[in-house]
Design brief:
Rossmann fold; binds S-adenosylmethionine; alpha/beta; 7-stranded mixed β-sheet; 212 residues
Length: 212
């Protein structure tokens, strides 16, 4: 899928009340941003935001943060929010590598949706489920750890299951074909997922938890 370059993306971000400009200022204080103590769910690499926006609409008693590296994708996400005011949604335009600068132990769920697969061995540290990233997540999860991952990439999926196991996560649900799974796993599609669904590509899914 091609990424569009949005002209004036930086200005769109600067003008949006959804975008948190200096996320490090709110470390350990995200409840003040949302004005409540509801659980906080974080999507890394939200792209155009279709998934996190729908989640925020569907679950008003949870808070959602979409983080995305690319300003053009982030600007498109802001446009995709539309006119309905969502008090439980915030957006950060930054590198996922920075999350420990932005969050203390205050995240309840992390969504990894069609993250870059980095299939080559030499790039495995860049995967969002590399051991390095899992260590970062340990520093921002509130108490229990909860990761939901969806991908069409077998290499990323297999290495994710291995690494999550190494960190003692257990798997509540695993599916090798989410859209044809007889258990009807609740699911909101992401932008990439819509495309892959049309192409009849199987989607790998894991709902992984670690309880203290
Ligand atoms: C394949 S796209 C998936 C987008 C969206 N999650 C979806 O499923 O439609 C991966 C996204 O992750 C973003 N991304 C890649 N590396 C990132 C990083 N280190 N930090 C934050 N976002 C990143 C990319 O810019 C891209 O928008």
């Amino acid at each position: 899928m091609r990424y569009n370059v949005v002209k004036g993306a930086r200005e769109i971000l600067a003008d949006s009340s959804y975008v948190i400009q200096n996320p490090e200022k709110y470390k350990n204080n995200w409840s003040s941003v949302f004005g409540n103590n509801n659980p906080i769910c974080l999507e890394l690499g939200m792209g155009r935001g279709i998934f996190i926006i729908e989640m925020a609409k569907m679950y008003p008693n949870k808070n959602f943060i979409g983080l995305e590296l690319d300003p053009s994708q982030t600007a498109t996400a802001i446009k995709n929010i539309g006119t309905k005011k969502l008090n439980n949604l915030k957006i950060i335009c930054s590198d996922a590598n920075n999350i420990v600068e932005y969050f203390g132990k205050e995240i309840d769920t992390i969504y990894l949706t069609f993250s870059e697969p980095w299939p080559k061995k030499q790039d495995e540290k860049k995967r969002f489920t590399s051991l390095n990233y899992l260590k970062l997540y340990d520093r921002i999860f509130r108490k229990n750890k909860h990761i939901i991952l969806k991908t069409d990439n077998k290499i990323l999926f297999a290495s994710s299951l291995e690494n999550l196991s190494e960190f003692w996560y257990t798997f509540d649900k695993v599916s090798l074909d989410l859209h044809h799974d007889e258990r009807n796993i609740p699911n909101i599609m992401t932008d990439f997922e819509v495309q892959y669904y049309k192409e009849h590509r199987p989607i790998y899914y894991v709902d992984a938890k670690y309880k203290d």
